[in-house]
Amino acid sequence: MSDNFNPCVSCGACCAHFRVSFYWAEADDAGGGVPADLTEPLNLLMRNMRGTNARTPRCVALQGEVGQCVSCGIYEQRPTPCREFAMSGENGVGNEACDRARAKYGLPPLFFSSNPPLTESYVSLGASPASDHVQSPDL
Prior knowledge:
The chain is α+β, with helices and mostly antiparallel strands. About 15% of the residues lie in helices and about 15% in strands. The strands form 2 sheets. Strands 1-3-2 form a 3-stranded antiparallel sheet, with no helix packed on it. A hairpin with a 3-residue loop joins strand 4 and strand 5 (about 70). The relative contact order is 0.22.
């Protein structure tokens, strides 16, 4: 088992709740790294990840089942909004957007202001200070 556990690998709610829009030049057909075939134009200057501009959004790069076991099929090439989206509790700061996406899928918030910030010591499996923190099998 790993000493480090990232709750995002058992979540994926943000990838199935928000539109992922970014500057068009982040796509690989314009010199960036995001696979262009996984994007669609949003307007003259912006693209979005396919599937995220739908009535029920789900990023085309999201693999797995939300709330179970997920991963990003283009993690190393993901666009800026994905790189900048912080899980709630990261660095001791809550993220209301993360909590809102998790709530849509019936998942508890990761961070409570009365709890200490998420740290390696209790994000790791078997060392959770509160029973309502996410735990998942090691991948």
